[in-house]
Design brief:
- The chain is of the alpha/beta class.
- The protein folds into 2 domains: about 190 residues, 3-Layer(aba) Sandwich (Isopropylmalate Dehydrogenase); about 130 residues, 3-Layer(aba) Sandwich (Isopropylmalate Dehydrogenase).
- The protein contains 11 helices and 10 strands.
- It has a 10-stranded mixed sheet with strand order 2-1-3-10-9-4-5-8-6-7, sandwiched between helices.
- The longest helix has 20 residues.
- It starts with a strand and ends with a helix.
- Bound molecules: adenosine-5'-triphosphate.
- Adenosine-5'-triphosphate binds next to loops.
Length: about 350
Amino acid sequence: MGTSNYQIALLKGDGIGPEVIEAAMTVLQRAGSVHGFNLYYQNVDAGAQYYQRTGESISAASMESIGKADAVLLGAMGLPNVRKPDGTEIAPQIDIREHYKLFASLRPAKLFKGVSGPLRTESVDMLVIRETTEGLFAGRHDRLEPSDSSVSDRMTITRETCEKLFELAFAQARLRRRQGSPGHVTLFDKANVLRSNAFMRKIFDEVAARHPDIGADRIYIDAGSMMMVMNPARFDVIVTENVFGDIVSEIAAGIVGGLGVAPSADVSKEHAVFQPCHGTAPDIAGKGIANPVATILSAAMMLDWIGERHSDTSCLNAAASIRTATARVLESGPRTRDLAGTASSAEVSVAIAAAVL
Ligand code: ATP
């Protein structure tokens, strides 16, 4: 079989974005040459600096063109001092999420040996799936009458999005089971109080019944948040609505050592954007000391996505190999300062690339 070729739209962005993307490319280059695939990059200018130059955070042409790529790899975007006239920060990553209806955010959280988390346990390996288009964000663009006495937000849950979301959660649990996880999905909700959440739970039950080989349970969000901290090993895949997921995924990142090691993917059935959970970290930008692990693990998720869609085992094997190499380097070093090391981003990425077999 010939070598496969894939097109990657690369949005390096602002702050440490270009540094962590550079580091991930070092690892991807090695993974491609060992496992036999080529990635062709299309650099897309977008973000806060681009906004300063042009008055827009991403051009309409770029927005269209990234949809033609096999995947999008994004560094980080936005700078605290670059704001739109209404005072909000530049966030083309949110515009992309809305444009391509990326309804789910996948945020794996694994505690690696050599990284000390705040808990006593050593076994944390979970995937939080956050719905990103509705839930408690559903009314974000609602027109509101100005009021000084009361303001409401809206929680909307639709059958269509829930079915897609839960099918994705069960598919991810099945994929993870192939890699040694238990194969289990937990819904976090507030079905005892919120009617929208009782409806969400009903649809979860319907979808769970279609996947009898995968374990399923439902926990109220308050109890579930406590259990994540008290007994994180209990969880494999957690799925939940937008705002609950926003909060819970940060708890998950916190218990595995913080932003430097937290990857993510925003996906629909057709499109996907892979990016670290962290922002542009202006306080350390330009120094070459940012932890590139979150972006390298995001790049591994990207290869999984491409491999699954194209039934390409070279990408799937490369993704597994990048994860193993990253685990090895986190255990033995070199590590960056946020993980109590002294290495530069480049030293870490070269070490991980060398460990990709
Ligand atoms: P945003 O709102 O864009 O998500 P933020 O202000 O919440 O950004 P980050 O830019 O992610 O936050 O930075 C938060 C803190 O974490 C900063 O002190 C930053 O230096 C640190 N940090 C973030 N990413 C990394 C990284 N990859 N390596 C080391 N430190 C990081």
